Amino acid sequence: MRKLVVLKFGGSSLANPNRIKNVARRVVDYKKQNFDVVTVVSALGDTTDDLISLAVQINSNPSERELDMLLSTGEQISVSLLAMAIHKLGFNAVSLTGAQVGIVTDTHHTRARIVSIDCHRINKHLKNESIVIVAGFQGVTQENEITTLGRGGSDLTALALAKALKANLCEIYTDVDGVFSADPRIVKNAVKLPFIYYEEMLEMASLGAQVMQVRSVEVAKKFNIPFHVRSSFSNNSGTFIAGSISDLNKLKLQVKEAEMMEGALIRGVTLNKNEAKITICDVPDRPGVAAKLFKHLSRVDINVDMIVQNVSHTRQTDISFTLSKNDLPKALKATKTVAKEIGAGEVLSDLEVARVSIVGVGMRSHPGVAAKMFEALAYQKINIEMISTSEISISCIIQRKFADKALRVIHSKFLNRAK
Amino acid sequence: MRKLVVLKFGGSSLANPNRIKNVARRVVDYKKQNFDVVTVVSALGDTTDDLISLAVQINSNPSERELDMLLSTGEQISVSLLAMAIHKLGFNAVSLTGAQVGIVTDTHHTRARIVSIDCHRINKHLKNESIVIVAGFQGVTQENEITTLGRGGSDLTALALAKALKANLCEIYTDVDGVFSADPRIVKNAVKLPFIYYEEMLEMASLGAQVMQVRSVEVAKKFNIPFHVRSSFSNNSGTFIAGSISDLNKLKLQVKEAEMMEGALIRGVTLNKNEAKITICDVPDRPGVAAKLFKHLSRVDINVDMIVQNVSHTRQTDISFTLSKNDLPKALKATKTVAKEIGAGEVLSDLEVARVSIVGVGMRSHPGVAAKMFEALAYQKINIEMISTSEISISCIIQRKFADKALRVIHSKFLNRAK
C-alpha cells in the first residue's frame, strides 16, 4: 500500500531561488522513499507584505474581495516555481491553485473557512507519479470567487488536505526547529519538545509561542490530524503534535519511544508581554453583571483573555481581566461606560504587566504543580497579581519588568529536573 | 440603448501606483459618459520579465504549463489593483481572471488560442453598474488548466471580448500616440495616421512598426472588429483601424471626416533592419526544387520573409530569400544541405541588409507608385538588391548602411506632398 505525505513550506523556506531548490530536494527525498507527495506552499518571502503595501498605495482601504484576488497570486507564483525546481531534479510535478484543486470555502473574504475539498484531481496526478504542489492560503467559493484563509492559512490548507487525502503524515516546515519548552531567546537551556498534545500546542500558541496559529491547531485537533513541525533548514526531527501517543505510534515514524515515554508533567513555560490589565472595583454582586460587561466588550470587538472574579464576602466584588495592549484605550472607554451603568466603582488599568504560564496535560492529575510554580516566583520575590487556571495550564499576571526572570526561574524549577 | 466600450491598457500604462490611478480616471470617464465599460489589462511594467528571470534562475528550461501558471499572476495583480483604484474614485468595479470570465482556449501553453468566451458573468456585473476588469493574456482550457496567449495576448483578449460582447468600440491604450507614416525617431516629419485599414496595419506590423502584434490585427480583421490605438499618456485621438471607412462612420466616433477622405495612396513607409539575405546560385530550373528548399527550412522552424526567384533564360536560376537575422546560422546550414541535394551551386549570405517598404491599399489601382519609390532611392544613389511586391506593399532590400536615408527620402517623396 502506498504511503502519502503532505508537506507544507512557509515563505521564509522559499525566500530565494536557492531555498526553493532546497525545498525541491526535500520534497523529492520523500518521492525517492516511495511516498506519494503533496506539497503546500506559502508565498515567497515577503511577497504578501509587498503586495499589501502596493495595494495600500492605491487605496488605503482596499476591498476584501480584491485583496484576495491580489494576495492569492503570491502562492500561485510559489507553486509554479517549485514545480520547475522539481522538474530540474528529474521528477514529475504539477502545480495547482486552490481553485484548481477544488478547495471550496465560504464567502468570507480574507478569512474564509474551508467547506470542502475535492480530491479527484490531486489523486489523478498522484496516480501518474506526479508530485502535486498546491497553493496554500487560498480557496474558491461556490460562485468561483477567489478567497484567502487568513493568517496561518497555508498550515490550514496542509492540514485539511492531509485529512481529506487520508495522509499518513503531515509535516509543517518552518524556520524554527520545533516547539520549545520555553522561548530559547530568553531561556538558554530550553529544550525542543519531541511531542506535545494538541491541547498543549493550543495553549502555547495562544500564550505566545509563535510557531503556528491557534486556528490551524484547532482544525488539527478537531479532525485528529497528527502533524510534525520542523525546520526546513536542518534535517533534525522537530515536534510531533497529536491527540495521543498511540496515534503517533500508528504512524511508525522516527519519534523515539524513549522521548515519548518521558511523561513530563509540564510541557512548557510561556510568556506573553503583550497584555494589559483592567480592574473594576466594587462591582455589585448580583447575577448578570459580568454578562453585561463582557457582552459590551465583545460588541466593540475586544477579545478578552484572562478573567478573574473572586468570591465575594460583601455585596461587592472586584473583576479583573486582561486583553491585548493595543485594545486598552477602546476597552477602558467601554468598561467605564458599563461600570457607571451597573453602579460599580473605580476602573483601574495597568499596561506594565506580563503573563507567565505553565502548560501540560499531565498536570491535571498531579497535585502540587501550582504550588511549585508560585514557590518559584516567591523565591525570586516576584509578586503575583492575578492567577487563573485551566485543566492544562496555570497563568500568573506579574509586573512586566520581572517577566524574563520569572520565565527562567519557572523553567528551571520544572523542566531542567525532568531532563 | 446602452453603449459598451472595451478598453485595453498595456504594462507601461500601469507601471506604478500613479499610473494605475491615471488609468482608473480614464476608465471612470467612460462610465461617467454612460458607457458600460470592460477594461482589459496587462501585467504591471516589467512584471512578466521579472517572473521569467526568476523562473530561469530555477530551471533554464521551464515547463510551458508551469510558465503559464507563473506568468498569469502578473495580470491578476493588475486587475485587482485597478479595481481598488476605481473603488477609490467612488465607482463599482470587479476584477476577473481569464478563468473566472470563462475565456476558454485550446491546450497550447504559452501560445494558446481563444476557443470561446462566456459573456454571462461579465454581463451580470455590467447590469449591476460595475466596471468589469479582465486579466488579459490568459485563459483556461476545458480541463481548467491556466494558459497564456503569447505575445500581444492582452490585445487579443480585448479584441475577442469586444467581438463577443458586441462592443461599440474597442480602444487599445499604449505608450505611443498611434500609428505613424514612418518611425518618428528616424523621420522627423512623420505624421500620425488618423485611420488605416486592417491590411495596411498587418503589413506595417509585420514590417516592423511595433505598435501591435500581427496576430491581434489578424483577429480584428477576421472578425471585423474596428479598434482605436492611442496613448494612455495624452488625450489625443490615435489611429483607428477598420475594414472600411463606413464601418468607422457607423461608430459615430470622433474621427474627422476630412481626415478620413484624404485617400492617400501610400499610408506609410516602414523599415526592418532585422533581416538577413541568403542566395542560392545556379539552382536547376525544374519543378519541385523551390518546394524542397522551403519545406526543409520550415521543418527546422525558420520563418522566411521575402522570396525572389527571377525568370530563368538558361537551365539554372538564382533563388534569394530573407529571414530574421537570428535564424541565419541555422538557415545557412539547412540551405547548404538542400543545395547539395538538388545539385545547386554556391550559397551566399548577407547580414548587412535592410528592408524598406511602402504600404497602402490605394496603390494597387495606381500605376507609377513603384517607379516613384525606385526613383527616390536612385536619387540618393542607393542600390536595390531585391524587389518584392504585394497588392498593398512594395519592398526593397538595400544595404543596411543606407537604411535611414532610404526611409527619409521615400517618406518625403510620397507623404509630405500628400499633406
Can you describe this structure?
The structure is a homodimer of 419-residue chains. Chain A is α/β, with parallel strands linked by helices. Chain A has a domain at 3-263: 3-Layer(aba) Sandwich (Carbamate kinase), CATH 3.40.1160. Chain A contains 14 helices and 20 strands. Chain A has helices at residues 17-32, 47-58, 64-88, 98-101, 120-127, 153-164, 198-206, 214-223, 245-250, 257-260, 289-299, 328-342, 369-379, 403-418; strands spanning 3-9, 35-41, 93-96, 103-105, 114-117, 131-135, 138-140, 146-148, 169-174, 195-197, 227-231, 239-242, 268-272, 275-284, 304-309, 316-324, 347-350, 353-359, 386-390, 393-399. Chain A has an eight-stranded mixed beta sheet with strand order 3-6-2-1-9-11-12-10, sandwiched between helices. In chain A, β11 and β12 (239-242) form a beta hairpin. In chain A, α1 (17-32) packs across α3 (64-88) and α2 runs antiparallel to α3. The model of chain A is unreliable at 257-263 (pLDDT under 50). At the A-B interface, α1, α2 and α3 of A face α1, α2 and α3 of B.
Unreliable residue runs of chain A: 257-263
Briefly, what CATH class of the domain at 3-263 in chain A? Alpha Beta
> Quick one: CATH superfamily of the domain at 3-263 in chain A?
Acetylglutamate kinase-like
Q: What oligomeric state do the depicted chains represent?
A: homodimer
What does the average pLDDT of chain A come to? 89
What's the SSE blueprint?
The structure is a homodimer.
Chain A: E1 3-9, H1 17-32, E2 35-41, H2 47-58, H3 64-88, E3 93-96, H4 98-101, E4 103-105, E5 114-117, H5 120-127, E6 131-135, E7 138-140, E8 146-148, H6 153-164, E9 169-174, E10 195-197, H7 198-206, H8 214-223, E11 227-231, E12 239-242, H9 245-250, H10 257-260, E13 268-272, E14 275-284, H11 289-299, E15 304-309, E16 316-324, H12 328-342, E17 347-350, E18 353-359, H13 369-379, E19 386-390, E20 393-399, H14 403-418
Parallel strand pairs in A: 1-2, 1-9, 2-6, 3-6, 9-11, 10-12
Antiparallel strand pairs in A: 4-5, 7-8, 11-12, 13-18, 14-16, 14-17, 15-16, 18-20, 19-20
Helix pairs in contact in A: 1-3, 2-3, 6-8, 7-8, 11-12, 13-14
